[in-house]
Amino acid sequence: MDFELTEEQQALVELVDRILADHCGNERLAELEKEARGGGVGSVHDAQAWRALTAAGAVGALLPEPDGGGLGVLGLALLAEQAGRYTAYVPVVAAIALGALPLARFGGHDELLAEVADGTKLVTAALEEPGEPASLTTTARRDGDRFVLDGAKTMVPYGDLADSVLIPAALDGEPALFLVPRSALTVTPLLATGLQPYADLELEAAAVPEAALVARGADAVDRLRDLGDLALAAEAAGVCAEAVAMTARYTSGRKQFGEPIASFQAVAQRAADAHINAQVLRLTMLRAAWLLDDEARGGDPEPREEISAEVAVAKFHAGDAGSRVLHAAQHLHGGIGVDTDYPLHRYFVRGQQIEQTLGTATRQLLRIGAHLAE
């Protein structure tokens, strides 16, 4: 089998790599973090890097043809992976996985999609509710020619910066998705572990027009969650790959007893295990991305529940294997690994944030177990 990237995919990776290398060096990220601590909640959004990505067409390249480049879910995975390699403070998961690609699939929002692609608008989705309920507690009811929504959402990526939010709510006994302007929501910004913007949202008789109903049915919400989980797993793959590379460089140069510590058996074994874990994460992520991409293109995909299970496997490894990789990197760096002047700490906290977002490793195992039990 041919696992090589296509010319278009390789061009996307190289473009994003150049842009993020220019904007996301350790010194600049440290400056952004310092500025964030000096005012507001303290979360970091790198608007300059995001404008550079959108201006270069990196977001538009993922949208369906003829208006976009058609690189789809696999393109999203590659873009998110590069963002993870640089721990960039850009809304790849929020704006693309939870915003642009779902809207493109559901249809009817071409103008908004164009604005997301050029960086003038931001859309995200609110999938988590307080207390991890077994079913949707946010509700929607028809009121004449509009819908009225009530409920609460928690830990919404870029929820305080997005112009609109995709809100899952129970309508007539089944899940539905609504596109709600941020102005209709009560927004509470949060300071998260990874310093990326998150927010809690409250909907108290939030009225939206009929056109706000984007899709109905559990499949629509499941596909939205799968895209978010896949993008997080891809970002984790980039985080872990760079943490392993950083550890290899450090242990090759750090000497004890006149020899590089990388030559010590215990160090080499720990590093090798971390490399294997990072590769397992990446391969399961690419498998899930391929299945989602095939489904989105209308091919002959696996059953929907099989695809969701594969995504859960990738997200499980993002939390489980990812945690082992990042703890090994911290350990092998010794004291310098926890020095906030050294960039490794940023990879560690980003990995922790990814694990907690949209379901921990344990929650993914429960999803996989439920699928196997069917």
TrEMBL record:
The cofactor required is: FAD
Asked whether the UniProt record includes Methyltransferase among its keywords, one would answer no
Domain (Acyl-CoA dehydrogenase/oxidase C-terminal) spans: 230-372
What are the protein's UniProt keywords? FAD, Flavoprotein, Oxidoreductase
Q: Where is the Acyl-CoA dehydrogenase/oxidase N-terminal domain?
A: 6-108
Q: Which Gene3D superfamilies match?
A: Acyl-CoA dehydrogenase/oxidase, N-terminal domain, Butyryl-CoA Dehydrogenase, subunit A, domain 2, Butyryl-CoA Dehydrogenase, subunit A, domain 3
Q: Which domain of life is it from?
A: Bacteria
InterPro entries recorded: Acyl-CoA_Oxase/DH_mid-dom_sf, AcylCo_DH-like_C, AcylCo_DH/oxidase_C, AcylCoA_DH/ox_N, AcylCoA_DH/ox_N_sf, AcylCoA_DH/oxidase_NM_dom_sf
CDD domains xrefs: ACAD (cd00567)
Write out the similarity annotation. Answer: Belongs to the acyl-CoA dehydrogenase family.
Kindly provide the name given to this protein in its UniProt entry.
Answer: Acyl-CoA dehydrogenase family protein
